[in-house]
Amino acid sequence: MTRAIILFFGAMATLLFALVVLIILPNAMMSNVEAPPDLKPYTQEELLGRQVYIDNGCVYCHSQQVRDPAFTTDVARGWGSRPSVPADYVFDKPHLLGTMRTGPDLINVGVRLPDAQWHLLHLYQPRALVPWSIMPPYPFLFEHKEAAAPDDTILTIPEAYAPESGVVVVTDEARALVAYLLALKRDYPVSAQAPTPPEGETGEGEGATK
Amino acid sequence: MAVENSQSTSEPRQENVVENATRRDSVIDHSKVRVNVAEAARLDRSSRFPVLLGFTLAIIWLLEGTLLGDIASFKFDFPDFLGSQEYLTFGRVRPAHLNAMVYGWASTAMFAVSLWMMPRLCRTPLQWPGLATGGIIVWNIGVYIGIVLLMAGVTDGLEWLEMDNTMADPLLVIGAAMVGASIWKTLAARNVDHLYVSVWYVAASYPWLAIIFIAGNLPIYEGVESAAINWFYGHNALGLWLTTINLGLIYYLLPKIVGRPIYSYWLSLIGFWGLALFYSLNGMHHLIGGPMPSWMIATSITASILMVIPVVAVGINQHMTIAGRFGAMRYSPALTFLVLSAMAYTAVSLQGILTALVNVNRVTHFTHWTIAHSHLGVYMFVTMSLFGGIYYILPRLIGREWPSANMIRAHFLLVGLGMVIYVVTLGGGGVMQGLRMLDPSLPFQASVEAAKPWLLTRSFAAVLISIGHVIFAAHALMLVLRGRSSVPEDPPFFFVRPVLVRNDGTTHQP
Lengths: 210, 510
Description:
The complex is a heterodimer of chains A (210) and B (510).
Chain A: H1 4-29, H2 44-55, H3 109-112, H4 116-124, E1 142-145, E2 167-170, H5 172-183
Antiparallel strand pairs in A: 1-2
Chain B: H1 6-9, H2 17-33, H3 37-77, H4 90-122, H5 129-151, H6 169-188, H7 197-217, H8 223-258, H9 265-279, H10 294-306, H11 308-322, H12 333-356, H13 358-364, H14 369-398, H15 405-437, H16 444-481
């Protein structure tokens, strides 16, 4: 090549082509995806909890998607009753689909583990409940006090993990995070749009409704 | 460095018109690009300050990123390690490590490398060197702000795009644009007709980076569209930025060190345009099985498989350039790192193609295989290439030889061995983790337990690599602090003579 202008426009053309195919076209196609009637927008508290989830990088170990049962066992493992669809995520900004399952998938954790007390203790010290867990503890989402104030929620901790003196009190952040986790329920039916591609990924799906 | 005569030493081969044209293109045009030692020194002086600044900042980032990576790694083995420190929780240290390495270490070093290459390849002094210096400074301030905020819990929440898009990202865009302006201005002021393949890669990378980075950070995406732009960016940051600058560096230094032109101009063309066309469509293979329209994922899988074309083209081209001259690695540490890096590029690309296949991906997706794969790419390919570049460039800019061959050997052996252990054990561990996760009769615990021993070997590898980095940084410091008087009579690495070609143009077999 001898012409810088060809290099420039050629390089831009290839990238813009990819941008159109993978971003602009799908954006247009999916702009009409509507929330399923059973999917409620996040409450203020759940949104705060979602922010806590983002700020502490939960996404680096937990995915939020049920893959197609045609070639995975996500459904058989109990992570959801059906594969996830784009409509499940209309209120998610940014997305938290995730790329790692160092820990289990969480898109239906609210269905699987509906106990808020369990989640609070698990966040404070995962190994108090799951001995083999390698999840980090989040003691900084709790407050260590000598004595609880009247309107404080005290966390009940097994002796082995409890501080030597005083009490551990639940903060608003921890409460919000648990509220968000309990709101992760994508088990409602999406009948009309149920995706059942016959041949796994390579099957021609109905684009926007997959 | 008379290269023309090297033709006479190659085996007799079937000549045909295309072959002749190919050789003429690569030989004749390269001769116009090639510069003599005095001219090279003059061109190097024009880029000296920004290049030295870039390398200095990059090496500091390398040490910081290494520390963050070590902390993240040990947290897998000892989950309560630093557990009460909010700003050192795993979910912040891990992205801080990635951002420090990709934007701090690799990108800053790549600015320096490209600012050093362009004047030589365009045969003109670096244009707007002050702007380039400013760009490197602005970029680095942006990365520091981004990572400090990240560890304080301020993040955009998208992998590879974590840095805050109001405080940090604008500085990154401005910084890269300033460096890019200097690069393109130098290209515009060139004194050569033919653009060497490294120029294509380096010059194209800057507008590519600008487009993907701005597109990726626009706060307009919701739901699965946010996932699409996330991985469009994430994959292209690797493919159209980290990969391209380093391929440009390897394409420049391999022929230069072995004293032989690039094997085939046409393969260079296929490699470049094939990469531009196919790599940019790869991103959705990070979402195989996910809630995306299946045609998007199918497009990316197809493009991933098509990547075999540019990858094999580049692989053959670089291999044939150095084939028969591997012995030069004994004399040139830069070449040793670059050859390993070029091989890792082929390996990581083929592994990436494999991983994009649905029947492999169903096992390896969401496991530590991905982490091993990304380290094969960003470390074994990108970082090794930058080490090679620094080993070659720094002595020329400072005017002294590296003080210790043994420190270079120790650096190479530690990081090389460490990374082999890292990639092999963690990749294998990821497969075991994935197979257990895919078996619904086993509890989730089985997948965690299967990965644990390999996470421990990874931490061991991380320690080896960290020691290598400390030695490298200390060695660079020694090089800078060392007095001029100690320049050795016969520098071992400074100007590595082409093994088979003498200065007067005659050739000889060793």
